[in-house]
Amino acid sequence: MISRLFAFMGGGAAISAATVFLLTAVPEYREFLYVRDAEGLMMLSVGAWILLLLPLMMFLSVPKELKALSFAAVLLIFGLFCSLVGAALSGVAVVYVRANMACALGVAAGMFAIMAVTEAACRKDMISWYCIVVTALWGLLLSGAVYGLFGLSLVDLAVCVAVVVIFCAILAYSGSEIQRIATAAKPERLNHTAITAALAVFLNLIGLVVKTLRFWESRGNCK
């Protein structure tokens, strides 16, 4: 099941990366994402905050029991959710990170794709610390390779590394939730189970981003 989870995580990260890349390439969209405060510093606009909360709103609006839906319907929900995650992160990329977030998410997609093959070969049945450490190592190697091949800035490299670390930390945090989802699953519905677990991981990612930004802005540090 874990190999399928990593496969869906890789696909979801790729969708988010493509969304960030396409949206932030439009100058009018970039201007929509921020406003300037009294000191002329950039901060998220109301529209950008709405985009940031949209994935959470969507997750709350879908049926609680995804297993009651067809796999095609769940896959469509997952694709739309990951697109909204990309739209949400585009504001963070433009206003706060100011680096190539699409590239960082692409590295994460590659990391999960490699792990999907690795886990299939190793036949691991559950998330473990060993699995998470190996995932992080692949992510760091890919970050270094992309930095060397495409001539990224050090800031871009730092964002790639940060995204890898954050995804691995969220995987560790979501381990018990993934185990609960996997334990309740039927063998013939492994794709449903894996995509539900992937949705849970992406939801935790957005929750972490929202909490972090609220904390920084409440302390006046995130401008």
List the SSEs and their pairings.
Blueprint: H1 2-24, H2 27-32, E1 34-36, E2 42-44, H3 46-61, H4 71-97, H5 101-122, H6 129-150, H7 154-173, H8 175-183, H9 190-218
Antiparallel strand pairs: 1-2
Structural summary, described in words:
It is a single chain. The chain has 223 residues and is mainly α. It has a two-stranded antiparallel ribbon with strand order 1-2. 78% of the residues lie in helices and 3% in strands. The protein is globular, with a radius of gyration of 18 Å.
Mean pLDDT: 86
Low-confidence stretches: none
* End-to-end CA span: 42 Å
Count the DSSP helices. 9
Assign an overall shape: globular
User: Which class of secondary structure composition applies to the elements?
Assistant: mainly alpha
Task: Write down the oligomeric state.
Answer: single chain
Which strand order do you get reading across the main beta sheet?
1-2
Q: What portion of residues belong to β-strands?
A: under 5%
Taking all Cα atoms into account, the compactness measure Rg is 18 Å
Order of helices and strands: HHEEHHHHHHH
Number of strands: 2
